[in-house]
Amino acid sequence: MAKNVSAAPAPRAGVATALERALGLLLIAVVAINIVNATGRYLLSYAFTGADEVMVFVMIYVVMGGAVLSLAQRKHININLLPSYARGRARHALYAIHDLVALGASLFAVYASWLFVARIARLGTTSMTLGIPMIIPHAAILLGFGAMAVVALFVLVRDIRALVADDPTIEEATAQAEMAG
Known about the structure:
Layout: H1 10-43, H2 51-73, H3 81-85, H4 88-123, H5 135-165, H6 168-180
Helix pairs in contact: 1-2, 2-5, 4-5
Subunit structure: The complex comprises the extracytoplasmic solute receptor protein and the two transmembrane proteins.
Protein name: TRAP transporter small permease protein
Transmembrane segments: 54-72, 93-115, 135-157
């Protein structure tokens, strides 16, 4: 008898929901900073020093966090023409190929980011207004692609298991997860 396997077990779904909420709160904070800064600049003739830097740096982390979530939930921009018409093992094979490409691209980005962050750290570069070490915003790319590589590895393992098992419940759970997204 086939075991019912959901595409996103409850603990991982809880982590995703918490991350989505945190990213949403960060976006709200960026909007609030922007409103306060614009109000201060145009109504009070006072600009808050470094507000633009903070907003840009936070947005970089928000984008990378969103990219990790998108990969994990298969909600990222892709061309899914073939998987949408494929069923069973063919669909899981296409997903596994996609996962391998995502893993390879993420690992390459991690390597390139590591080299760049190491160079920035050696130079000791800081931001112009607040003097924030530039390693902080540049590390967002390294951390984001590192997390994407981990996610890609997990979904690759999941899709290979589905491919080997040829389990229709895994197929249904994957299709339902896609339709929900």
